[in-house]
Amino acid sequence: QVQLVESGGGLVQAGGSLRLSCAASGRTLSSYDMGWFRQAPGKEREFVASISWSGRTTRYVDSVKGRFTISRDNAENTVTVYLQMNMLKPEDTAVYYCNFVFANLRDPVFNAWGQGTLVTVSS
Asked: Residue ranges of the alpha helices (H) in 30-114?
């Protein structure tokens, strides 16, 4: 059974930075592509960024390009995926979730989501 645990959210002023972490454990995970998603109040969950299992390929939604960076550390039974968020804007306020993604590096694999981590950006 795989567990995904997000952390690192908080309250930050516009222009500030945060680093989110997603710890995935439970089986051999280093060969899986992974991504970050977010859901703002009153809106649908959206794709934010993804990274291939090797770390060589990344993908971002246009609104975060140049500000967010996704990375990962692979171990045999534990994978940690990071989302470095710089130059944060109030519109980045959302609950952020991680998930595995399909080969298109965009669509989430699991319909069940973790608790997420809340990012609040004040103006």
From this structure: none
